[in-house]
C-alpha cells in the first residue's frame, strides 16, 4: 500500500492546478515576454501585441529587437515612438531583421536613389508593410527614372502602395504601353499618375476596358481632354457613368447629343455630384441670368464652387456693372475662369479708389457673407 502511494503521489502533484499553471507558464515564456515587450517597448496595444507576438515564438531574448529599435530610432533614420508603433503593428517581423545585413543596406539603397533621411521616413509612414521587403534597386530604379523625383514618388505612394508591389513588366510597363498606344505621351502618363495613382497598377485588362470606355465618350485622342477622359472613366464604373449621364440630361434639360458634346468639351463634368449640379444650374439661370445653351457651351462652369467662386464673383460683376465700370453684357464666364491673382488684378485693384470697400466685400463673399 505504501509503495502504491509513493507511485501515485508524484502523479497527483503533476496534475494539480498550481503545477499545471507553472508548467504552462514555463513552457512558453517567450510568448509572454514578446507580448509584454511589444506593449512596453514598442507602444502596441495589448490586442495588437497579442496578434504580433505570434511572429516571435522563437525569441530567447529581445536582444535582436533592441538592436533593430536602436537603429530605427537612432541617427540613421530617426523614427519616433509613434512611427515605431505603427511600423511594428503593420510589419512585426521587422524586429527579426538583421541590422547589418538588411536594414542598413536598405537605407543605403534608398539613398543611392536620391532619398534623404526625411524622405525615407516618409516612405516608412506611407508604406510600412513594404519597407522591409520590396526590391529597392528594381522598383526605385524604375520609378525614379519614370517619375523623376522622390517627392513625386512619395506623393503617389501615399495613395497607392501597389507602386512597389506590382510586377513591373507584366503590369506597370504593359499599362504604359497601352496608354501610349492611345497617343498619350510619357509626360501625360506621368501627370496622370499624380491625379489617378492606380492607373498604372491596374490589371492590364481593366486598363484596356477603361481605354475603350474613354474612346466611347468621343473625346479625340490627340486632344488635351483625352487625358481627362481616361481619368474620369477610371474613376467611374460603367453603371455610375450611365447614371451620371442620365442625371445631367434630367437636371439640365439636355438631349443625349447635347450632354455628349458637354462631356467631350470637359469629361471632368461627369464627376460633379447631382446636388452640386442642381444648385449651380439654378444659380446660373436664376441669379446670374444665363440660359441653358450658355451653360451647355461652357460645361466647366458647372464644376466651380458656388460659395467660393461663382457667387462672390457674380457679386463683383454686378457691382461693377451698376457703377458703369464694365459693360452690361460682360461675360460672366470670363470673370469666373481666371485665377485669383488675375481676378484681383483685373476686377478689384483697378477700382480701389472708386470702390474702396470692394476688396473687403469680395473677401467676405468668399467666406459665405454676400453683402446686400
From TrEMBL:
Protein name per UniProt: Uncharacterized protein
SMART domains per the UniProt record, alphabetical: Mterf
Lineage: Eukaryota, Viridiplantae, Streptophyta, Embryophyta, Tracheophyta
Alphabetical keyword list: Transcription, Transcription regulation, Transcription termination, Transit peptide
Similarity field: Belongs to the mTERF family.
Organism: Panicum hallii var. hallii
GO molecular function terms noted in the UniProt entry: nucleic acid binding
Signal peptide: none
Matches recorded under InterPro entries: MTERF (IPR003690), MTERF_sf (IPR038538)
An annotated GO BP: DNA-templated transcription termination
Highest taxon of source: Eukaryota
Amino acid at each position: 500500500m505504501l509503495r502504491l502511494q509513493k507511485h501515485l503521489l508524484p502523479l497527483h502533484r503533476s496534475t494539480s492546478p498550481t503545477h499545471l499553471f507553472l508548467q504552462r507558464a514555463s513552457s512558453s515564456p517567450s510568448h509572454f515576454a514578446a507580448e509584454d515587450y511589444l506593449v512596453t517597448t514598442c507602444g502596441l496595444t495589448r490586442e495588437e501585441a497579442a496578434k504580433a507576438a505570434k511572429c516571435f515564438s522563437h525569441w530567447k531574448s529581445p536582444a535582436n529587437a533592441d538592436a533593430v529599435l536602436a537603429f530605427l530610432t537612432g541617427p540613421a533614420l530617426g523614427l519616433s515612438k509613434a512611427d515605431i508603433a505603427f511600423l511594428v503593428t503593420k510589419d512585426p517581423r521587422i524586429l527579426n531583421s538583421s541590422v547589418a545585413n538588411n536594414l542598413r543596406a536598405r537605407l543605403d539603397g534608398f539613398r543611392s536613389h536620391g532619398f534623404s533621411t526625411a524622405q525615407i521616413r516618409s516612405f516608412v509612414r506611407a508604406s510600412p508593410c513594404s519597407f522591409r521587403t520590396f526590391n529597392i534597386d528594381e522598383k526605385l530604379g524604375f520609378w525614379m527614372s519614370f517619375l523623376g523625383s522622390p517627392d513625386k514618388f512619395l506623393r503617389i505612394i501615399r495613395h497607392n502602395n501597389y507602386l512597389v508591389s506590382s510586377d513591373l513588366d507584366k503590369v506597370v510597363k504593359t499599362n504604359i504601353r497601352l496608354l501610349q498606344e492611345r497617343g498619350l505621351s510619357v509626360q501625360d502618363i506621368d501627370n496622370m499618375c499624380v491625379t489617378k495613382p492606380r492607373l498604372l497598377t491596374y490589371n492590364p485588362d481593366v486598363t484596356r476596358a477603361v481605354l475603350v470606355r474613354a474612346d466611347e465618350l468621343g473625346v479625340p485622342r490627340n486632344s488635351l481632354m483625352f487625358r481627362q477622359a481616361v481619368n474620369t472613366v477610371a474613376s467611374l464604373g460603367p453603371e455610375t457613368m450611365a447614371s451620371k449621364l442620365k442625371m445631367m440630361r434630367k437636371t439640365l434639360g439636355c438631349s443625349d447629343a447635347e450632354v455628349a458634346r458637354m462631356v467631350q468639351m470637359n469629361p471632368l463634368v461627369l464627376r460633379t455630384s447631382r446636388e452640386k449640379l442642381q444648385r449651380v444650374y439654378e444659380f446660373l439661370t436664376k441669379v446670374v441670368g444665363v440660359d441653358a445653351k450658355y451653360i451647355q457651351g461652357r460645361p466647366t462652369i458647372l464644376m466651380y464652387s458656388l460659395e467660393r467662386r461663382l457667387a462672390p464673383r457674380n457679386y463683383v460683376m454686378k457691382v461693377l456693372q451698376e457703377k458703369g465700370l464694365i459693360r452690361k453684357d460682360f461675360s460672366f464666364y470670363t470673370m469666373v475662369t481666371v485665377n485669383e491673382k488675375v481676378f484681383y488684378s483685373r476686377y478689384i485693384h483697378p477700382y480701389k479708389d472708386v470702390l474702396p470697400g470692394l476688396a473687403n466685400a469680395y473677401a467676405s463673399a468668399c467666406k459665405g457673407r454676400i453683402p446686400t
